[in-house]
């Protein structure tokens, strides 16, 4: 499908890829990981033909269509659905040709074009485009509004919908989850697991990579290494490889030292000079093994204010919203010192409204916001990146907050956020999105808050920085409220959840898996309610309704059997995978003596994960086909 043949790529004086020689097969779902600037996006540009290789080649099987995400979506007056439909160029051309044939009265050509549009699945295109937009969080009333009405983040969602709609055998997605909330991310996850083509996905969300990918392509020190399995399997395999590399490095260093001692000892002796020269040549020929290195350059702390109140902040019977609309009613919550709270809820339910009220940006329409005497709020959100001074440096930003702080203390502090050496004095205008996010987060930390409110803090952060943030939050002594689609961060940082839905804020007794199930039940209930509205209400029609129900059960029986069989097989496979992962959690398994056993178990884990993903896709396909058939039969009746 896609082959890299001794591929090399250099940008300026920097080598991004060197000697890459590997193949991605049809149907692979490949996660692309590596440090920021390693060359992930450049690899996509090579595949699309926008960059030329400095050596070697990228070979793609003939006739394969490639769909990829645009990095920006312009604020144009095109309606959302029309913009998504534009992604199918062949369909749009056929529609334009049909309109021209109808205008010219060319009936034979008109008939042929109707057949062409049907072959392109054009008569379901609008419904499919609407479903994609709905899955990514748009309401029915949004679908025919112009793109210009929406913010940049929402336009990126429309761009993602267009990419998914575009017919393709190869799908390239660069950070598709950055502008999604948790609900939309879970929907996208399911969509991608069912995508039949070859997927290449750049992402810093480890749970997303785990759920979607069956291979990981790691870019490190200009080398491309392909690992089988999802991100968790990659981490284990790479840890084993690094341990072996370190052992080989130490062994080689010991051997080099032994040779060097021999040469120093006997170089001057005539009887040993030839042997000494031989040892020197051995040293020259010895291939240097690099020491395994710690990957993450980030280690930082989130300091907390010395004084603290209990509770830190309360909302007392508060109605929240805006002058033109009330979003949440009767909110009664308190945040205590040390609490770790995650906010869950469908898009548009009021999570952002709640956050803005907690920080004091919005005042309650009724009730009260009651801050503690010593409350110090730290707030991080993506829009704060836009308020950074592009003409200033990271050092200047911190110095403005604390003019009396010493230069060294500022430099030491910024070093933990990855700004070292001359980077401390670099212009923010030249920073990447990830660097700006790190700077904005550092400015929040510098203020020593005792209540930290984080609204999607991981957007633009790479895996290393996300892990450093999770570790810093674990050690943070203050209270935390988080809205995030990064499930790894939520699992690592949150102790309790609040659910924001239907105008209320209530405690959610469960974890993220429970929330995912709740979402499915809620969606099912909403679909059922919509079907109920179409059912006959007249008591005289009850017999006909029962007969129609019996016919419905009979017609849907094969699909229900297929779904139930897939569900049972999935449960068995998940049980086997759980037992295998328990074995892999045994620390002694990673001893050198058990290397073959570890290799076998990792291989079996990858196979089981592949089986689980296939069964999940089979179950989802059967469930969706069943729901579609039921809806069609209900409509027909």
Automatic annotation (TrEMBL):
<dbReference type="InterPro" id="IPR003593">
    <property type="entry name" value="AAA+_ATPase"/>
</dbReference>
<protein>
    <submittedName>
        <fullName>ATP-binding cassette domain-containing protein</fullName>
    </submittedName>
</protein>
<keyword id="KW-0547">Nucleotide-binding</keyword>
<feature type="domain" description="ABC transporter">
    <location>
        <begin position="310"/>
        <end position="527"/>
    </location>
</feature>
<keyword id="KW-0677">Repeat</keyword>
<feature type="domain" description="ABC transporter">
    <location>
        <begin position="2"/>
        <end position="246"/>
    </location>
</feature>
<dbReference type="InterPro" id="IPR032781">
    <property type="entry name" value="ABC_tran_Xtn"/>
</dbReference>
<dbReference type="GO" id="GO:0005524">
    <property type="term" value="F:ATP binding"/>
</dbReference>
<dbReference type="InterPro" id="IPR027417">
    <property type="entry name" value="P-loop_NTPase"/>
</dbReference>
<feature type="region of interest" description="Disordered">
    <location>
        <begin position="526"/>
        <end position="567"/>
    </location>
</feature>
<dbReference type="InterPro" id="IPR003439">
    <property type="entry name" value="ABC_transporter-like_ATP-bd"/>
</dbReference>
<dbReference type="Pfam" id="PF12848">
    <property type="entry name" value="ABC_tran_Xtn"/>
</dbReference>
<dbReference type="InterPro" id="IPR050611">
    <property type="entry name" value="ABCF"/>
</dbReference>
<dbReference type="Pfam" id="PF00005">
    <property type="entry name" value="ABC_tran"/>
</dbReference>
<dbReference type="InterPro" id="IPR017871">
    <property type="entry name" value="ABC_transporter-like_CS"/>
</dbReference>
<feature type="compositionally biased region" description="Basic and acidic residues">
    <location>
        <begin position="526"/>
        <end position="557"/>
    </location>
</feature>
<keyword id="KW-0067">ATP-binding</keyword>
